[in-house]
């Protein structure tokens, strides 16, 4: 018999498992709103034009080689990524007190940052939002941190529970790490206002709480890279320290290239240098060094003014299509006279709508309408199109009446 015969079958990942179930469904009207990946009006994955151009440029360059990157990744990519998230005029960049390492997309950046903190930061507790992206608790637990939650979402308003958030962060032990979704909160689509961010910043700084930003959707929420980075820049402007995990999966459509960055903003260049040396000790035994291709694509686009501008237009078009899907779904429910207040569909931000549908309703919609989503009622607006909105609206209408 096999030495592994005692293993039990593990459950599918709660998010990726939705796609597995979808793929098995033979129905021609099936609709996958589970996974957070952009789709065109035709329901197809999108490779940005600007990415195709950058790849062509890389192919044409016969001097390019496939040597290992250094442990911290592509140097130019790291510099440009810091500039993209913090802004070209950031004091942290000017004063050279930031270290940035290329990591395996957003997930890898969170994991490396988590392990670094578990090794070198005095507080081992990280507070994450309730609810949050399903991978967060697992990433940080395996990184060696203790995971606790803070209140975030208010089901009764389908908006932010700001008071609960402030109470919970106010009661956190001094120095605790706080994971903050930089924009387009996953799964709720609910973000603090700029005024609320300022109050969160003041509270966190007064208690010495350590901000760890997860920026998986820069540009995807508002359509503007700068607007979506604003909360992070507020925390950097006050001179304090923070961590930022960046992903290029959504905003450049580089999902499978696994390209992202971890930045740690420090108080001095000297400390930043030491932090980088220790980050390399975390990375080397984990995967040795990151891949070269995705980071090269990003660097080509970010370094060239024309390509950069073209990218911002394509990014805005994706964000606008998602916003238009919100309006169309809201209108479709209104025209059906579907009971309930559905205004959260147009108020929420980014890729997802947290519909408020419960697991039983979700399972009814999957069974009767072949519509797939996570059991918490989260739907990916990027998976919708003008053609499929009526089908989704019919299903929601049927399940709530
Ligand atoms: N953080 C959040 C909140 C996300 O929603 C995602 C992706 O869905 C990620 C991080 C990381 O994604 P990736 O590792 O593909 O960059």
TrEMBL record:
One of its GO terms (molecular function) is pyridoxal phosphate binding. Transmembrane segments: none annotated. It catalyses: L-aspartate + 2-oxoglutarate = oxaloacetate + L-glutamate. Its cofactor is pyridoxal 5'-phosphate. Residues 29-396 form the Aminotransferase class I/classII large domain. GO terms for biological process: amino acid metabolic process. It comes from the Eukaryota. Pfam families: Aminotran_1_2. Keywords: Aminotransferase, Pyridoxal phosphate, Transferase. PROSITE patterns: AA_TRANSFER_CLASS_1 (PS00105). SUPFAM superfamilies: PLP-dependent transferases (SSF53383). Its EC number is 2.6.1.1. One of its GO terms (cellular component) is mitochondrion. Homodimer. NCBIfam families: PRK09257.1. PANTHER family: ASPARTATE AMINOTRANSFERASE (PTHR11879), ASPARTATE AMINOTRANSFERASE 3, CHLOROPLASTIC (PTHR11879:SF57). Belongs to the class-I pyridoxal-phosphate-dependent aminotransferase family. In eukaryotes there are cytoplasmic, mitochondrial and chloroplastic isozymes. This is Aspartate aminotransferase.
